Amino acid sequence: NLDKHVLVQWLIYLGNVLRGDLGYSYATNSQPVLDIILSRAGNTLALAIPSFILSTIGGVVLGAIAARTRRKWLDAGISGTAVGLFSVPNFWFGMLLIIVFAIWLDWLPTGGMAPYGQAGIQPQYLILPVLTMATTELAYKARIMRSSMIESLGQDFIDTARSKGLSSSRGLWRHAMPNALLPMITVAGYSLGFILAGSILVERVFGWPGMGLLFFDAIERRNNMVVLGVVIVLTVTIILVNILTDIVYGLVDPRLRARRS
Questions:
Q1: End-to-end alpha-carbon separation of the chain, Å?
Q2: Is 135:90 a contact under the CB 8 Å cutoff?
Q3: CA distance 240 to 244
Q4: Does an H or E element contain 73, and which?
Q5: Cβ-defined contacts of 178-183 (< 8 Å, 24+)
Q6: Which of 30, 110, 116, 174 falls 20 to 30 Å from 93 in CA-CA distance?
Q7: Which runs of E-coded beta strand occur in 17-117?
Q8: Rounded distance between C-alpha atoms, residue 215 and residue 220, angstroms
Q9: What is the pLDDT of residue 169?
């Protein structure tokens, strides 16, 4: 439809997108763009899902420990480290990990998914990119969890539990933790979108053949249909994750359930 007006071209393209047709890649023998993206999506999820799990669990645990030891050296260490790591760009942190663990110590590979000539994903190739993607989000979640836990520990029901002889550790993990986790549901859901978006740079640094590396290759080759396709797929995925997060929060939060009843 290049012979039509640009507005007509855009409307036709938009209609095709709504039907799941993202066009064709002229750089790869007119292969459907959606097929190209789906062939790389699994590799991106192989990084994003472990990074999400690691950052969420680590952020919750470290945030709770920092809140429990508030105004002590452990709290200062965790909070200071979290602020520092959250301020570091993930691509720079990834290159730093490559220098230390792949070049200086020679413990891990510098990039890729597996040794040359082998198929599949080897575990040792996952470590550095997963750590790179998880670290920034872990630091942010630890800060949020610390604030939420401190607020939860200051509630009246915690004072009541302590007056009845409940130990501090049991009050922390059994009573304060469930209430402090509610804001983390929203934070965790939104962080998955940041992880997926951040994977574009991380995959470039480590040469990981996912959607991020596909995106950069398409830019360099001026393969505009693939660039648009990756942006659309990531955008739709992030929107769906945010909607699912709101639904889960509404089901979990007892205050919202009480309002509906």
A1: 54
A2: yes
A3: 6
A4: helix 73-86
A5: 179/152, 179/155, 180/64, 180/67, 180/145, 180/148, 180/149, 180/151, 180/152, 181/60, 181/148, 182/148, 182/249, 182/252, 182/253, 183/144, 183/148
A6: 116
A7: 24-25, 31-32
A8: 9
A9: 64
The model's pTM: 0.84
Instruction: Write the pLDDT tens digit of every residue in 146-161.
Output: 888 887 777 666 667 6
Residue 119 corresponds to which tokens in the numbers above?
Answer: 């198929």
Which tokens in the block code for residue 70? 């508030």
**Six-digit token string for 96:** 């730093």
The Cα 261–Cα 255 span in angstroms is 10
Written as six digits, the tokens of 92 are 């720079």
pLDDT tens digit string along 133-188?
998 889 889 888 888 888 777 766 666 766 766 666 666 666 677 777 788 888 88
Q: How far apart are CA 247 and CA 118, in angstroms?
A: 42
- Report the alpha-carbon distance of residue 85 to residue 64 in Å, rounded: 18
Residue 52's pLDDT band, with cuts at 50, 70 and 90, is very high
Task: Reduce the DSSP state of residue 21 to 3 states and report it.
Answer: coil
